[in-house]
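tool=predict chain=A
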Amino acid sequence: MSKHSLPRTAIVTGAGSGIGKSAALALLADGWQVVLAGRRADPLHHAVDESGAGTRALAVPTDVTNPDSVAQLFRATVDAYGRVDLLFNNAGIGAPAVPLEDLTAEQWRAVVDVNLNGMFYCLQAAFRVMKAQSPRGGRIINNGSISAHAPRPRSIAYTATKHAVTGLTKTAALDGRAYDIAVGQIDIGNAATEMTERMAAGILQANGQIMEEPRMDVGIVGQSVVYMANLPLQANVLFHTVMATSMPFVGRG
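tool=predict ok
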């Protein structure tokens, strides 16, 4: 259990699998109350069951691209637990790795809608709750990516939206100061999830070669989120990069 005496409440989006699930389970193991949000109900309920956290875990199916669905998520959280202390703004998708001129408008819009619009809607809803609650304030951790700094080949939609997440993080960190809202960003490189399985099989590099890339245990990301989440609100990790040590990021290209 957490060393904190009062229960604290987190919302994790994209919590049914991968990084979101890892973070939700890590927060629950640390004593948090966690609302797991995602598009698909079954994986959320499976994660709740796996946690063994009982009433400290709640599954709320949510479409982050729909502002009304996001508002309902935050209402359900406040109804269940009284407040929101942490948002892990994690939900995200990629597009097919095709030449940029072949990416369809629909594929582009889908990535922008989840990775940028959805993240903004969740950020906005968190601000509304955190500014109004007592005690005031809270923490928001946006999931950026290594791609918020350096692109992979054929990743224009994902990379553009992840660069935009950095703009959301910096602006929200500034706007949150007056309300005891700390906003930071976690940039993750090659966590072993379903999304990164292609890296273990071999992925296109900037020089045109296909190369296998090392990955790290996704549980390490959960540990990083817990570390950031447990800081007092007078301190903020504005940017945190956690990555597989031997992956080709520093010096990529």
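The radius of gyration is 18 Å. Helices lie at 18-29, 41-51, 67-81, 105-132, 156-176, 197-201, 219-229.
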